[in-house]
């Protein structure tokens, strides 16, 4: 099997996004767009990824520092071929296959890349691209084929004739090259186009012109073809990704009562037979066990771990906390930076007061505790197993320590 590298284009400035942040760092269901592209590459055996960065490069580097990623600086944005050529020094001695992908395409699927790779190897082609057929192909480069269906080249939208604009097969920028052929073709490209940029599509024309085999396989779904160039498209991509996330969860035994009114982060993990009620929002790295019931109107934040048979009800918020088996918090509670033991009951309106104005403190609650309605637990706080907190009580560690051993089982005002 050929060794495989990837060049990921992530240097562009998106004026339509109206942002001070690198476009590829904008999140889709809790993860930066670039993360989805990197993961798809890893799934198909890419051993090294060269990410071409420019605008806000340091932001991207900090977010994605890993051993299989190399950062390549593109000082001037002179087109896609120029971006790829910036990687020449890294790939000049590489004899394998090189994927070229866009970092702002979060809807990419590894299975599509696998189809692209299989076609490339079966046809023994020098370059292969995966194409899409769109009802509205506006803005995309068009795939030009001859009468026999053989690919003749790609024409960028801005350079299309009237006849070419009617073509519905488009180039969503999924490329696979034999690396040596790619580098040779890049050296011959000239900016002879409306934008006076160096187009990667011209490399394909050059490869065809020198007699090498170039193949196009229609393998990209309409959703996958969508890049993100505006806030509206970011929202659309997030909705598509959310449907994918929920579909996988439901296939794995999670009940989502109203998918259209539920939002679940891509990093969340949810166990079998858990029920997610409407208007629940799960954000960040959240783990939910089996047989739980969450919501409606629940908010679970980053760092939350719910073990099995946990029930969180209406307007309950949990942040950076671990709730053991059988915990109940059904109404209007806030649980932040806490550990709750088995079978704890958190009454309506009870909260952990975890921030003292300077730092965040933790609350640790033992097994089988009862927290009455409207109780305020002031962190840092340690509550032993079996303790009962009366409704409306303000509990601090000092007040717990002042109690005698015989009265610690029942704490009241």
Which terms would index this structure?
Spore Coat Polysaccharide Biosynthesis Protein SpsA, Chain A; 22% helix; 9-stranded mixed β-sheet; 9-stranded parallel β-sheet; 413 residues; alpha/beta; elongated; UDP N-Acetylglucosamine Acyltransferase, domain 1; 2 domains
Walk me through this protein's architecture:
The chain has 10 helices and 35 strands. Helix content is 22%, strand content 29%. 44% of the residues are buried. The chain has 2 domains: 4-218, Spore Coat Polysaccharide Biosynthesis Protein SpsA, Chain A (Alpha-Beta Complex); 231-411, Hexapeptide repeat proteins (UDP N-Acetylglucosamine Acyltransferase, domain 1, 3 Solenoid), CATH 2.160.10. The strands form 6 sheets. Strands 1, 4, 5, 6, 7, 8, 9, 10 and 11 form a 9-stranded mixed sheet that branches. It has a 9-stranded parallel sheet with strand order 12-15-18-21-24-27-30-33-35, with helices on one face. The protein is an alpha/beta fold and 413 residues long.
Q: Can you identify the CATH class of the largest domain?
A: Alpha Beta
Shape, please? elongated
For the secondary structure, the number of strands is 35
- The CATH homology group name of the largest domain: Spore Coat Polysaccharide Biosynthesis Protein SpsA, Chain A
Number of domains: 2
Mean pLDDT: 93
Portion in helices: 10-25%
Strand content: 25-35%
Q: Low-confidence runs (pLDDT<50, min 5 residues)?
A: none
Report on the biggest sheet.
9 strands, mixed
Task: Give the N-to-C terminal Cα separation.
Answer: 72 Å
Estimated radius of gyration? 27 Å
Q: Total helix count?
A: 10
- CATH-scheme architecture of the largest domain: Alpha-Beta Complex
């Amino acid at each position: 099997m050929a060794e495989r590298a990837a060049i990921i284009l992530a240097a562009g400035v998106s004026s339509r996004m109206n942002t001070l942040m690198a476009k590829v760092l904008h999140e889709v269901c809790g993860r930066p767009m670039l993360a989805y592209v990197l993961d798809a590459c890893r799934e198909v055996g890419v051993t090294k990824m060269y990410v071409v960065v420019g605008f806000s490069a340091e932001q991207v580097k900090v977010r994605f520092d890993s051993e299989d990623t190399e950062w390549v600086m593109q000082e001037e944005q002179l087109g896609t071929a120029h971006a790829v050529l910036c990687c020449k020094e890294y790939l000049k001695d590489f004899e394998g296959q090189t994927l070229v992908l866009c970092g702002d395409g979060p809807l990419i699927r590894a299975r599509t890349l696998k189809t692209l790779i299989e076609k490339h190897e079966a046809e023994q082609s020098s370059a292969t691209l995966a194409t899409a057929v769109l009802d509205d192909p506006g803005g995309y480069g068009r795939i030009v084929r001859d009468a026999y269906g053989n690919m003749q080249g790609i024409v960028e939208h801005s350079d299309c004739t009237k006849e070419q604009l009617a073509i519905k097969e488009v180039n969503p920028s999924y490329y696979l090259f034999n690396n040596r052929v790619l580098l040779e073709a890049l050296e011959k490209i000239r900016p002879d186009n409306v934008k006076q940029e160096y187009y990667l599509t011209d490399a394909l024309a050059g490869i065809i012109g020198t007699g090498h085999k170039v193949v196009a396989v229609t393998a990209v779904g309409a959703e996958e073809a969508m890049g993100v160039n505006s806030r509206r498209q970011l929202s659309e991509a997030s909705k598509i990704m959310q449907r994918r996330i929920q579909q996988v969860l439901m296939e794995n035994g999670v009940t989502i009562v109203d998918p259209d009114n539920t939002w679940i982060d891509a990093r969340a993990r949810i166990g079998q037979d858990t029920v997610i009620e409407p208007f629940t929002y799960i954000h960040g790295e959240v783990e939910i066990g089996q047989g739980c019931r969450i919501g409606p109107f629940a908010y679970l934040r980053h760092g939350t771990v719910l073990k099995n048979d946990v029930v969180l009800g209406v307007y309950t918020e949990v942040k950076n906390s671990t709730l053991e088996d059988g915990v109940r918090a059904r109404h209007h509670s806030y649980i932040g930076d806490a550990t709750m033991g088995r079978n704890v009951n958190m009454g309506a309106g009870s909260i952990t007061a975890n921030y003292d104005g300077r730092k965040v403190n933790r609350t640790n609650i033992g097994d089988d505790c009862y927290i009455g309605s409207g109780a305020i637990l002031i962190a840092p706080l340690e509550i032993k197993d079996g303790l009962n907190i009366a409704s409306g009580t303000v509990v601090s560690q000092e007040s717990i320590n002042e109690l005698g051993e015989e009265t610690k089982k029942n704490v009241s005002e």
